[in-house]
């Protein structure tokens, strides 16, 4: 019986493509985007994946420890040169509204007993970053939410101000719910609609159809030009793509926006950090029309 089955069974075609097909640019990009469905990649993922052991935490794929057996290279960079860390997985919440209203409500979730608050003068100017611990509204010293860092956008002459609050992804949902409660933000303003995802199999079918019709083996867009696939960081590891990412308050006019993965964040450690920034960042030339 087993021999008869073997004779009648059709040989399944292998789904594994040859290396040349896998290394084709359109397939590489599709694979890059496909592998982020469960765990979001940072901008520096490819560089880290070649040199570090990766772990999956908080909805992201993060570098845990280097593949080298020694940590001397990192220690040497921290003490004598410059070490860069990618902290883009930290969550960013943006608050927009009148300065007085923002300070009035934010004072309910922190205390001067723990240090400087959101209204500290040197922080309000936007020149320095502040840090503090957040609590449930009017519950200090109980019900601590966690530590955060914040920075104000410098004043532009209007009474409206912009504030960015950075926090660990494990704390984001609790802090976001508390901010929406104190500012009475219940109406979602914007909902993220993910772009249609094209798999590598679908793209291969498109190229096969083009070849059968006698066309070149190049994908065309609507205007007839060559469509260049783009690597995309898909979504946010702490939020479902179909959930809203911006809320507004009809009573106070405050708008809360989730800017996670929209603003990259890097940390430089070491005595040459300032020199590296000076050599890397160049002032743009002013153009007057």
Structure write-up:
Residues 4-97 form the Pop1 N-terminal domain. This is POP1 protein. It comes from Casuarius casuarius. The protein has 289 residues and is an alpha+beta fold. Among the domains are: 19-68, no CATH class; 91-188 and 242-263. It has ten helices and twelve strands. It has helices at residues 2-8, 19-22, 25-34, 45-49, 72-80, 99-106, 121-124, 172-182, 200-212, 273-280, and strands at residues 40-41, 52-57, 60-66, 83-86, 91-98, 130-135, 144-152, 160-167, 187-191, 244-248, 255-258, 266-269. Strand 7 and strand 8 (160-167) form a beta hairpin. The termini are far apart.
- Residue ranges: pLDDT <50 for 5 or more in a row? 196-201, 206-217
Average pLDDT metric: 79
Radius of gyration: 25 Å
Based on secondary structure, the structural category is alpha+beta
Strand content: 15-25%
Strand order of the largest sheet: 6-7-8-5-11-10-9
DSSP strand tally: 12
**Cα separation of the termini:** 85 Å
- Provide a count of the helices: 10
Query: Which sequence of SSEs, written as H and E, runs from N to C?
Result: HHHEHEEHEEHHEEEHEHEEEH
Bin the helical content: 25-40%
The major pleated sheet works out as: 7 strands, antiparallel
Oligomer: single chain
Specify the overall morphology: globular
Protein name: POP1 protein
InterPro entries: Pop1 (IPR039182), Pop1_N (IPR009723)
GO biological process, one term: tRNA 5'-leader removal
GO cellular component, one term: ribonuclease MRP complex
């Amino acid at each position: 019986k087993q021999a008869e089955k073997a004779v009648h069974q059709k040989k399944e075609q292998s789904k594994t493509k040859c290396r040349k097909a896998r290394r084709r640019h359109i397939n590489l990009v599709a694979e890059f985007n496909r592998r982020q469905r469960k765990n979001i990649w940072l901008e520096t993922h490819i560089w880290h994946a070649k040199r570090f052991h990766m772990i999956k935490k908080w909805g992201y794929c993060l570098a845990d420890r280097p593949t080298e057996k020694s940590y001397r290279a990192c220690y040497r960079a921290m003490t004598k040169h410059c070490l860069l860390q990618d902290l883009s997985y930290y969550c960013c919440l943006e608050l927009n509204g009148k300065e007085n209203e923002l300070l009035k409500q934010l004072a309910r979730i922190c205390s001067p007993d723990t240090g400087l608050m959101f209204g500290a003068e040197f922080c309000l100017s936007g020149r320095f970053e502040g840090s503090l611990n957040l609590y449930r509204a009017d519950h200090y010293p109980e019900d601590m939410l966690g530590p955060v860092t914040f920075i104000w956008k410098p004043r532009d002459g209007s009474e409206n101000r912009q504030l960015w609050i950075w926090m660990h992804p494990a704390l984001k949902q609790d802090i976001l719910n508390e901010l929406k409660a104190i500012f009475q933000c219940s109406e979602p303003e914007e909902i993220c609609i993910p772009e249609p995802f094209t798999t590598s199999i679908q793209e291969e079918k498109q190229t096969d159809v083009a070849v059968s019709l006698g066309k070149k083996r190049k994908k065309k867009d609507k205007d007839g030009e060559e469509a260049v696939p783009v690597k995309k960081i898909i979504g946010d590891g702490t939020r479902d793509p179909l959930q809203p990412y911006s809320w507004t308050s009809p009573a106070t006019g405050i708008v809360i926006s989730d800017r996670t993965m929209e603003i990259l964040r890097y940390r430089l450690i070491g005595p040459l950090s300032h020199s590296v920034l000076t050599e890397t960042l160049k002032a743009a030339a002013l153009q007057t029309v």
